[in-house]
Amino acid sequence: MGKQKKKNTNVKESKKSNSHIWLFVIIGILTVGLVVYMLTGNFNKKNTEETAITYENQPYLGDENAPVNIIEFGDYKCPICKNFNESFFPLIDEELIQTGKVKFFFLNYPFIHVDSERSALFGETVYKELGNDTFWKFHKLLYEKQPDDQSLERKDIFTEKFLNDTLSEVTTDENVKKVNGNFKKDASENAVETDEALVKDLGVTGTPTLFVNGKKFEGNSFGDLQKMVEEAAKESK
Ligand code: CA
Questions:
Q1: Among candidates 146, 141, 109, 147, which has minimal Cα distance to 126?
Q2: CA-based, 20 to 30 A from 175: which of 5, 117, 219, 222?
Q3: CATH architecture of 60-236
């Protein structure tokens, strides 16, 4: 009897150690799976490779074949964007765009006020109906016309009439009518939504935010941006 009992205990022990082996096997499989998942890049997919960005149907400045893409995410109602466009952008234009080093895109991140949404949609309509050149003239003028008084940031300034009047400063009355007709029909709503989807995917949280070949610019000076552009140009060769 005693022997028999001992035998039973051995069976139990052997079952116990078998279940330990299976536990190790399962943990092993899960670990290998996790490592493969991380190595194949799925784990870091949110960390924005350039492939995640579609530049098609977005307004841009510069040489079509420039090796580096810069995106500015902006809001026409944002005072820092106005400042950026008037003091920082001319340097980018002169040193990076005009020299053929960079293709510069503007994308909408309208979040401050109803004016932000309205002017983003209007801008997209200008781009769709009148093309790249007129879009950039309108874009520049709209930032110039943003009031310096920042207390107006959350007031209705960019009304439909204001946007039409601004556009009429850079194109014909006939073109203004064409844009306004399509603006009223929300014909370019999808374009704004495309920009906003990218804002979400790239984790943009404020304006202006720049991306250089899909990587967020974290520097402070034009020199920092220039350095980042040079590195991106080397990588793209
Ligand atoms: Ca756009």
A1: 141
A2: 117
A3: 3-Layer(aba) Sandwich (3.40)
